[in-house]
Amino acid sequence: MDLLFTYPSDTLIHAVGWALIHSLWQGAAVALLLAGVLRAFPGVGVNPGVASRRRYGVACVSLVTVVGLIVITFFCYADVGQMDRGRPVVADMAVVTELTRINVTPPLSTELLVTAEQTAGPFEWVERYLPWMVVAWLIGMSIVSLRLLTGWGVLRRMCYRDVLPINAALQGRVSALCQTMRVRRVVRVLESSRAVTPMVVGWVRPVILLPTASLTGLSSQQLEAVIAHELAHVLRHDYLVNLLQCVAETLLFYHPAVWWIGRVIRQERERCCDDLAVTVSGDRVDYARALLHIAESAPPHGGRLSVAS
Questions:
Q1: Tens digits of residue pLDDT in 160-190
Q2: Does an H or E element contain 21, and which?
Q3: How far is CA 113 from CA 83, 88, 95, 123, in A?
Q4: How far apart are CA 76 and CA 66, in angstroms?
Q5: pLDDT tens digit sequence for 246-258
Q6: Cα angle at 219 between 214 and 224, to 5 degrees?
Q7: Higher model confidence: residue 256 or residue 295?
Q8: Which DSSP helix (H) or strand (E) runs through 192?
Q9: Most buried in the list 67, 74, 217, 272, measured by CB within 10 Å?
């Protein structure tokens, strides 16, 4: 007679599934806490640059906290699953009854035998659908990852196609800005007919792409302020931080709170760079006019790729 013994579900699927489930309330709790902290740093009555850096730092810590909580939850369930693997469970007490009737001693003591009814809990239906939940998460993550990789490939091609080097006079002003802002790395600045807005591509060898449409109509001071904004991204290593943020958002693509935290990070990142650009240019109003001109020059359906900074 075949003995119908079953074992706990696969540890990896079990741990991933429950980590995804717990991430829903964990991410929501962190987002609510972040919203409360942001109200404490509104940027009114204090140095705007200091407020932006505080809000940006708190938002980044919040995203790291969400990811960290999910990782901790995963390992907690994985450890429990490994412990449970050593305890076989009888699928049906009828097997034990039959073995007892024919005077066959079960291979396990009756104290260790747990019926399906005894192991069933209020979340039994969740356990039943955990594999499907994990499969759906893998499919969604694959689709979002493909979109991220496609955007990264488009950005890399933009650095080599339909680009022109800026003139010598502007390059000289860029070198002076690098010295003023203490940017130690070599930064290439190119004029691009494909770029919609000014952007930084790359971290080890950063490239600043300036859209051709936005170059016309800007004064030299406004153009320097715009370039200073992009140099601020290079100085702050924003491209690398943004890339890691995109990875976290890809893993947690299903979570609205994570996307909200990511939006806060991007907004505060731009404000931090705006503050640095205004510090260099010295004219906040003129810089605002430059941003308005760039926004008006951009195509109506254009936008910055998520992996750009």
A1: 888 888 888 888 899 999 999 999 888 999 9
A2: helix 11-40
A3: 16, 8, 11, 21
A4: 15
A5: 999 999 999 999 9
A6: 80
A7: 256
A8: strand 188-192
A9: 272
DSSP state of 104: -
Beta strand 199-201 pairing with 163-165: unpaired
The pair of three-digit structure tokens given for residue 30, joined into one six-digit string: 């962190």
- Per the DSSP assignment, residues forming a β-bridge with 200 are 208
Nearest-angstrom CA–CA distance, 264 and 56: 8
Rounded Cα distance between 198 and 308, Å, is 10
- Contacts of residue 122, defined as CB under 8 A and 6 or more positions apart, other chains included, come to none
pLDDT-based confidence at residue 1 (cuts at 50, 70, 90): very low
Taking the C-alpha atoms of residue 74 and residue 165, their distance in angstroms, rounded to an integer, is: 49
Q: Check: CB of residue 180 under 8 Å from CB of residue 232.
A: no
Place of tokens 């909580």: 69
Amino acid at residue number 89: V
Q: How many residues does the chain have?
A: 309
Which one is predicted more confidently, 161 or 45? 161
How much is the pLDDT for 203? 85
Amino acid at site 51: A
